[in-house]
Amino acid sequence: QTRLPLPPGFLFGTSTASYQIEGAVTEDDRGPSIWDTFTAEPGRVVDGSSGAVTCDHYHRWPQDVELMRRLGADGYRFSVAWPRIQPSGSGPVNQAGLDFYDRLVDALLAAGITPMATLYHWDLPQALEDEGGWLNRDTAYRFGEYAAVMADLLADRVTHWCPVNEPNVVTLNGYGEGTLAPGKALTYGAIPVAHHLLLGHGLAVGALRSAGAAQVGTATNHLPVWPLSDDGADHQAAAVLDTLWNRLFADPILLGTYPEGLGDAMPGPVADDLVTISQPLDFYGVNYYNPLGVRAAPEGSPLPFELGEIPGYPTTDFGWPVVPEAFTDLLVDLKERYPAIPPIIVTENGASYATGPDEHGVVDDQDRIDYLDAHLRAVADAVGRGVDVRGYYCWSLLDNFEWADGFTQRFGLVHVDYDTLVRTPKRSFDWYADVIRAHRAGTA
Ligand code: GCO
What we know:
The two termini are about 15 Å apart. The chain has helices at about 20, 35-40, 55-70, 80-85, 95-110, 125-130, 135-155, 165-175, 190-210, 230-255, 270-275, 325-335, 365-385, 425-444, and strands at about 10-15, 75-80, 115-120, 160-165, 215, 220, 225, 285, 290-295, 305-310, 345-350, 390-395, 415, 425. The chain is globular and about 55 Å long. The chain is α/β, with parallel strands linked by helices. It has one domain (about 10-444): Alpha-Beta Barrel (TIM Barrel). Helix 13 (about 365-385) links the parallel strand 11 (about 345-350) and strand 12 (about 390-395). The chain has 14 helices and 14 strands. The strands form three sheets. Strands 5-4-3-2-1-12-11-8-6 form a nine-stranded parallel beta sheet. A three-stranded mixed beta sheet has the order 7-9-10, covered by helices on one side. A two-stranded antiparallel sheet has the order 13-14. About 40% of the residues lie in helices and about 15% in strands. The structure holds D-gluconic acid. D-gluconic acid binds near residues 165, 395 and 411. D-gluconic acid binds near residues 165 and 287.
């Protein structure tokens, strides 16, 4: 394994999310979340599955920490299930829920792994959704209170924090399109959700700072939007989607402003809120998977754009095009568009390939290795072009519950047999361990 040209001290990690791996959804007084509700509705998840058991990480976490120790990764990004901490989204905290994360963090530290905690990876307490969820400004305040609880518990040991995972996906897919929980198809009616999630982010940043958290950042999904032809209409459609998908969430945090025209669509004292939203951060977390192809929608469509396939690239089992150079361009573009951007950490990147164990129990996922290798090189290229990237967290440690795609997509470095819950490290796991080791040896 040759060392990748990444800076000394570069953090290599893996990423997961509570609802996708924990299971045990009724245990120890965890309250119901919008994902429990959503997955119980027929037709929402392709294979009819849910996160009720998934990887059973809630019980098997010592084994998973041991896997990470073997991997030799510096960091681990996990998320806290809000309904374990406050079963109905506000008020008294549930000690058993706190204890789970307290033990997990101690075990990570004992294994030499730096914890990074996400506070909201989509499992909103159902009780808050019943009050309007993220359409309701109060949810942002409840989130700030919950963030303060977690900061008080863990800021002495957890160095890295991501308040909200991918607010764009929650807004546009959860409330705009309805393909993710809570499954509301409000189209432009979802726009206030963006503002409340951003306000929640800002309130959480404040709470984390007050508790002395060392590194506060984001986990922002960025998909470069590519027009599918040279046609002016397709370019314009791409600009609209780029604004809604990327800039609507990055501009307020990094510039303290909304893209033109969108500020007026936001509810509440927007100018004051933007001060809260744009507080300085220690890192900017980027989740990158692929570019999106877009063309103008036919006359009379509810939205001005339409997604389409980008020809000419290999695809993952999810059908997502594999375009590592778009990752380099994205990182360079972020630096150009937002000159004051803090250091970047790649908080997610990875690929879905279904490869399972062969007759010898070996999971030979060469296509995942190729994907990860090319994308780590794309990061190195961005560093070479002057972008300050400090870490890379692979999605994901384990195969897990892939939202509306249930168990049909596997992103793990470790294979999970959902009948026996046996974990089998894939070849990509050993490859990643080698990359990390070579980097340390070469930069020591
Ligand atoms: C996220 C992601 C993950 C997904 C991964 C693959 O929002 O952080 O959606 O939860 O599992 O991106 O789709």
